[in-house]
C-alpha cells in the first residue's frame, strides 16, 4: 500500500495484496467511452436545491431533515422554510417552520424535526429564494413491541470509481425503514488516484475545509445519491476515507504532515464539512470525533453504531514477518500484537458497548461498525518452509486481537454476567461480501476447548454480515471464485465469500430471525438498472450461528414513495 503519487498516471489492475491492504492506488481499467457518459440527469433542474434533500438519525419522535441552498449570488444569510406532512402531496401538514443558513455553514440546512409519532412515514419539503425543493420521504423508528425491521446496508460509495446504481435500486424499494451507511461515504483522493470513471471535484486530494465541502457537494449532486436520500432516512457512521485512508486517532496512512499540515486540523476540517453535509445529529457538539450511539428500534433491535477511527484508534501495526499470497502477513507473536492497550474503540467506548450489550432489552443487538470483526488468515507463501497461517490486514480487528477478545468475553458472559445472545455484526470497508460465524478461535475445531465446529456452527458466539461496496473495487480478478474458495478453505467460519461484485445488503429482521440478502448490480461503469439477488443467510433467535436462507418477500402496501 502507499499513498498514491500525484504525478504518476493511474495504475490499472488491483492486486490481491493491494486489496487486502486497502490501497488507495489501485484502479480498474474502464472503457474510455465510460468517461464520456453524462451524469444521470436529476429529475428536474433546480438550481437553488441542486443538492437535493436528505433525512437521517431517526428517533421515535424526531428526525434530521437536510438540504443545501445555492443562492443565485453570495448572501450573508438565507431564510429557508420547511413543511412536514403525513402524505406525499403535502396536504396533511403536521409541522411548519423556518431556519436561516449562511456561508459559515456552506448554506447547508439541518432541521431536527421534533414532536413526531413513532414508526411513522412523513414527507417534507423546503422552500427558499422563491424555489421549492424536491419532496423527501422519511420515517421515525418505532417504540415498544416491534415485529419487523427492513433496511439496506451500504458502504464504500466511490464517485470516481463508478455510478451509484446500488443507491438507485435502494431508492426504488418503498418498503425499507432506513438505510445504514457503514462508511467511506466519500473518498479523499485526487483525480485519477483511485478511480477514473468520473472526475473528482476538486481535482486534488481534499485536505482543507473548502476541499471537503466541495467533495461533499459533488457527491450530493449525484442523481442516484439524491434519489436514495430523498426516499429513506439514513443512519451513517464514517470509516476512514471521510477524512483520509487508514486513519487512526493521531494520523493516517494517507496523511503527510510535512506537506498536508496538522492532522488534527485536517480532521476538524473534514468533520465540519461532514456535519454540514450529512443528515446526522452530532453525538457531542464539544467533541465531534465522538460518534458512537445506539438506536432502540422498539424491542426488536438495538442498532449500536461504533466509531473506530478518529476518537481513540491506536495506530495500525506495521510489523510483518511472514510472506503470504496477499502480501506480508502477521503472526500473533509479532511485536505489538498482544498489547492489550491497543484498540479501535478506546476504553470508554468499549465500556459503553459492553454495558449496552449487557443491558439492552432488545431481541437483536446489531453492531454497525467499520472493519471486519471475523478473523481472516492466509497461508505462508511457501508452505514447505513456512506452513503457518497469518493475519493479512492489520487495519481490521485482526490487528487489535486483545480488544476483540474483550468483546468476545462480554458476549460469552462470565460468573457475574449472563451470555449475550443474538449479536449481529454489520460491516463494510473491504469492497466484498462475507458471512461469518464468530468465535475467538475458529481455527480450533474442538468446541469443548472453546473452538468452533464448521459443520454444525457449534461454538459460534455471534454472526457477522459484511456488505460489499457501492462502487469501490474488490478483487475483481477472482471471476472463478478461486481466491474466495481458498480463503474459505483456510477460514472455516466463513459461510459465504464473494470478492468481485458491487451492490448492497438487504437486512430483514423479525423476532424469530435476521436474514441478510446480498444484492448485486451488473456494473458501476455506466448507469444501469439491472440488479440480481445472489444469496441469503440467516441467524435464528438463540442460535448465534448462520444457516442458508432465502429471499424475503417485500412488505405489502408500503407508504408511497416521494414523487
Ligand atoms: Fe472503502
**Residue share in helix:** 10-25%
In total, the number of domains comes to 1
CATH topology heading: Purple Acid Phosphatase, chain A, domain 2
Main sheet attributes: strand count, strand direction, barrel closure? 10 strands, mixed
Strand content: 25-35%
| CATH superfamily placement | Alkaline phosphatase D (PhoD)
Which class of secondary structure composition applies to the elements? alpha+beta
CATH level-two architecture: 4-Layer Sandwich
Placed side by side, the strands forming the largest sheet appear as 5-2-1-11-10-9-25-26-27-28
**What is the CATH first-level class name?**
Alpha Beta
What small molecules does this complex bind? fe (ii) ion
Report the radius of gyration as a whole number of Å: 23 Å
Distance between the termini: 45 Å
The total of helices stands at 10
User: How many β-strands, per DSSP?
Assistant: 28
Mean pLDDT: 92
Any low-confidence stretches, pLDDT <50, length ≥5?
1-44
Shape from CA axes? globular
Model description:
By secondary structure, the chain is of the alpha+beta class. It has a single domain (141-548), classed as 4-Layer Sandwich (Purple Acid Phosphatase, chain A, domain 2). The protein is 16% helix and 26% strand. It is built from 10 helices and 28 strands. Strand 6 (121-128) and strand 7 form a beta hairpin. The relative contact order is 0.14. Residues 1-44 have low confidence and may be disordered. The site of fe (ii) ion has 6 residues, from loops.
Amino acid at each position: 500500500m502507499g499513498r498514491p503519487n500525484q504525478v504518476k498516471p493511474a495504475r490499472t489492475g488491483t492486486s490481491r495484496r493491494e486489496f487486502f491492504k486497502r490501497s488507495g492506488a489501485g484502479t480498474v481499467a474502464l472503457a474510455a467511452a465510460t468517461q464520456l457518459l453524462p451524469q444521470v440527469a436529476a429529475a428536474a433542474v433546480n438550481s437553488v436545491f441542486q443538492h437535493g434533500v436528505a433525512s437521517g438519525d431517526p428517533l421515535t419522535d424526531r428526525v434530521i431533515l437536510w438540504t443545501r441552498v445555492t443562492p443565485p449570488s453570495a448572501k450573508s444569510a438565507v431564510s429557508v422554510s420547511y413543511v412536514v406532512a403525513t402524505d406525499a402531496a403535502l396536504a396533511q401538514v403536521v409541522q411548519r417552520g423556518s431556519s436561516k443558513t449562511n456561508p459559515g455553514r456552506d448554506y447547508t440546512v439541518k432541521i431536527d424535526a421534533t414532536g413526531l409519532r413513532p414508526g411513522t412515514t412523513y414527507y417534507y419539503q423546503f422552500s427558499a429564494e422563491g424555489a421549492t425543493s424536491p419532496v423527501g420521504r422519511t420515517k421515525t423508528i418505532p417504540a415498544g413491541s416491534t415485529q419487523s425491521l427492513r433496511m439496506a446496508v451500504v458502504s464504500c460509495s466511490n464517485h470516481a470509481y463508478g455510478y451509484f446504481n446500488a443507491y438507485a435500486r435502494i431508492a426504488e424499494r418503498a418498503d425499507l425503514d432506513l438505510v445504514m451507511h457503514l462508511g467511506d461515504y466519500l473518498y479523499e483522493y485526487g483525480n485519477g488516484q483511485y478511480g477514473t470513471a468520473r472526475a473528482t471535484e476538486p481535482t486534488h486530494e481534499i485536505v482543507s475545509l473548502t476541499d471537503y465541502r466541495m467533495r461533499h457537494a459533488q457527491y450530493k449532486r449525484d442523481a442516484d445519491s439524491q434519489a436514495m436520500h430523498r426516499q429513506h432516512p439514513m443512519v451513517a457512521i464514517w470509516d476512514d476515507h471521510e477524512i483520509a485512508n487508514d486513519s487512526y486517532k493521531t494520523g493516517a496512512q494517507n496523511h503527510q504532515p510535512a506537506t498536508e499540515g496538522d492532522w488534527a486540523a485536517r480532521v476538524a476540517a473534514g468533520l465540519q464539512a461532514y456535519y454540514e453535509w450529512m443528515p446526522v445529529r452530532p453525538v457531542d457538539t464539544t467533541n465531534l470525533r465522538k460518534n458512537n450511539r445506539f438506536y432502540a428500534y422498539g424491542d426488536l433491535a438495538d442498532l449500536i453504531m461504533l466509531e473506530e477511527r478518529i476518537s481513540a484508534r491506536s495506530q495500525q501495526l506495521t510489523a510483518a514477518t511472514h510472506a503470504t499470497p496477499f502480501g506480508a502477513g502477521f503472526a500473533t507473536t509479532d511485536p505489538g500484537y498482544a498489547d492489550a492497550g491497543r484498540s479501535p474503540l478506546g476504553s470508554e467506548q468499549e465500556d459503553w458497548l459492553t454495558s449496552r450489550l449487557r443491558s439492552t432489552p432488545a431481541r437483536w443487538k446489531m453492531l454497525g461498525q467499520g472493519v471486519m470483526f471475523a478473523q481472516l488468515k492466509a497461508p505462508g507463501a511457501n508452505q514447505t518452509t513456512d506452513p503457518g497461517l497469518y493475519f493479512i490486514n492489520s487495519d481490521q480487528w485482526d490487528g487489535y486481537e486483545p480488544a476483540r477478545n474483550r468483546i468476545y468475553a462480554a458476549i460469552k458472559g462470565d460468573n457475574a454476567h449472563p451470555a449475550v445472545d443474538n449479536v449481529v455484526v454489520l460491516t463494510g470497508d473491504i469492497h466484498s461480501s462475507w458471512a461469518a460465524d464468530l468465535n475467538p478461535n475458529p481455527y480450533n475445531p474442538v468446541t469443548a476447548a472453546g473452538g468452533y465446529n464448521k459443520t454444525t456452527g457449534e461454538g459460534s458466539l455471534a454472526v457477522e454480515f459484511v456488505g460489499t461496496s457501492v462502487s469501490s473495487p474488490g478483487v475483481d480478478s477472482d471471476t472463478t471464485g478461486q481466491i474466495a474458495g481458498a480463503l474459505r478453505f483456510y477460514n472455516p467460519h466463513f459461510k459465504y465469500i464473494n470478492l468481485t461484485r458491487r451492490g448492497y445488503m438487504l437486512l430483514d429482521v423479525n423476532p424469530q430471525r435476521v436474514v441478510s440478502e446480498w444484492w448485486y448490480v451488473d456494473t458501476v461503469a455506466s448507469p444501469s438498472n439491472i440488479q440480481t439477488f445472489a444469496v441469503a443467510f440467516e441467524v435464528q433467535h438463540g442460535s448465534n450461528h448462520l444457516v442458508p436462507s432465502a429471499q424475503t418477500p417485500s412488505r405489502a402496501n408500503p407508504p408511497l414513495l416521494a414523487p
